[in-house]
Design brief:
Layout lengths: L2 E3 L2 E3 L5 E6 L9 E7 L6 E6 L5 E3 L7 E6 L4 E6 L8 E8 L12 E2 L3 E5 L1
């Protein structure tokens, strides 16, 4: 039910905005997160958005990435600035209808991912 888009190839220092369409999910009651998984590595939590509007980021993206939502469009976004080669990964949107932690195990709903490549 979650569908990501907006990935692509970009040069280092560039920007991308990822979108996640989440029909049926109310951001006022659901925990939403972005994760990423680089080739050969474990899935890594990137950022989350809580129902109260609070946001959190993993240290490596603080100051460069921004998570946001538009409830009227059932969409979650991840604005990524100053991209680095180490940001190269498949990016996933995840949703939980209950309280979730940073652990991927606490999210029941996942998109198929969108690839981001930074060179």
């Amino acid at each position: 039910q979650l569908v990501e888009s907006g990935g692509g190839s970009v040069q280092a220092g560039g920007s991308l905005t990822l979108s996640c369409t989440a029909p049926g999910f109310d951001f006022k009651t659901c925990d939403m997160s972005w994760y990423r998984q680089a080739a050969g590595k474990r899935r890594e939590w990137v950022s989350n958005l809580k129902p109260d509007g609070s946001t959190n980021y993993t240290d490596s993206v603080k100051g460069r990435f921004a998570i946001s939502q538009d409830n009227s469009k059932n969409s979650l976004y991840l604005r990524m600035n100053s991209l680095k080669p180490e940001d190269t990964a498949m990016y996933y949107c995840a949703a939980s209808r209950g309280v979730a932690s940073f652990s991927a195990m606490t999210y029941a709903y996942w998109g198929q991912g969108t690839q981001v490549t930074v060179s």
